[in-house]
Specification:
By secondary structure, this protein is of the alpha+beta class. It has 8 helices and 4 strands. A 4-stranded antiparallel sheet has the order 2-3-1-4, covered by helices on one side.
């Protein structure tokens, strides 16, 4: 019984050696590594300076080649693939994903690694061409307010100054945001509270705060940006 089991293992090992092509494996690893570095560069270009995430892009190179190696091994040997899936079931991510964009970039690295592992390098190239195009389109649309505003500002002023508030806002926000609009206004305890949205932020949020504070002198002011860390 033990001998037959050993022969089966040797036969499986021989089949694995016959199917394994070191040249293709190295090519797949190289392609996934280049793709992972590209994904890391795209993350840093489009989102790193605006987010407070976990800096997940630093793991992209190792993540890419690891996934590629796993999927190559799965293709070469079915028994080995079952063991790999069992081993991977114990892995848990302990670092929370703080930015929604991180999920998209992780999926991009995984998809690129799978393309490389299945030796569909043309798919990998097209995937990144479309991804880069999508990121530039998203940036263009965001810059023009197609995806909503950059943030919300809530001001409180004495009721006696509320009639002139719109004019004061126009002067304070001129040259600092592309567009803005008042969404709601409420009066209570002698104070008028106005909520407005703005898009196309052209300066630091601190400069915007200073301009509004100097031009309007509100009793209180709160600015909520559309994403954590989005100071620009």
């Amino acid at each position: 019984m033990k001998m037959s089991s050993g022969l089966a293992v040797l036969e499986e090992f021989r089949k694995t050696q016959e199917m394994f092509d070191p040249g293709l494996f190295v090519a797949a690893l190289a392609a996934s590594l280049v793709a992972a570095f590209a994904a890391s560069a795209l993350y840093r270009l489009f989102y790193e300076h605006r987010g407070t995430g976990s800096q997940v892009h630093r793991a992209f190179p190792l993540l890419g080649i690891s996934i590629t190696a796993l999927f190559v091994a799965i293709q070469v040997s079915i028994p080995l693939s079952l063991g790999l899936l069992g081993a991977l079931s114990i892995i848990r991510f302990r670092t929370p994903i703080k930015e929604p964009e991180e999920v998209g970039f992780i999926m991009l690295v995984i998809a690129g690694s799978v393309c490389a592992a299945t030796f569909h390098f043309d798919f990998l190239f097209l995937l990144y061409v479309v991804a880069v195009g999508a990121l530039f389109v998203a940036r263009w649309a965001r810059a023009r307010g197609r995806f909503g505003g950059d943030g919300v500002m809530v001001l409180s002023v004495p009721d006696g100054r509320s009639p002139e508030l719109a004019g004061l806002l126009a002067g304070a926000l001129a040259g600092r945001v592309r567009s803005w609009s008042i969404e709601s206004s409420a009066s209570r305890d002698g104070l008028t509270r106005v909520q407005m949205v703005f898009s196309g932020l052209k300066s630091d949020v601190t400069a915007l705060q200073s301009a509004v504070r100097d031009g309007i002198q509100p009793v209180s002011m709160d600015i909520f940006l559309d994403r954590p860390g989005g100071l620009r």
